[in-house]
Amino acid sequence: MPSHYCCRFLFAILISIVLCGCSKSATVPVSAKFAYQDGSPVFGKSAMVILHPASAGISGESSPKLSGGELNEKGEVSFQISRSEPGLIPGEYRVCPKVAEDFPPTKWLVDAKYLEPSSTPLKLKVERGGKNHFEFQVDKSARK
Description:
144 residues; globular; three-stranded mixed sheet
């Protein structure tokens, strides 16, 4: 099985486990673009972005849920909370780009600070009726 199929399969399993038993909720389309400080797109054989809820949600909305999406070769991603439910629930999220040179990931291409929700400086706020397209610049991994 080619590595990009493995990445998609594992991402689908992750989302399915997290969302098991969750009811449908109103979502809004959300996209982002990731680039390194030199302007080159963020991409690798294993390239996904995981969003961790950073807030309890916006008044009158459901609470944000663990979500994610796959980065394409241009460093672009459209987020979804499940395969059948594209988009995100409005709220604040911590952004963790998990991009590796190989699969399964052993050599990360982005700095380690982005890998965990407790250390990532990247955040986004999804608003109903907002633009909801975000652009991030990230540091490359210091490991060679």
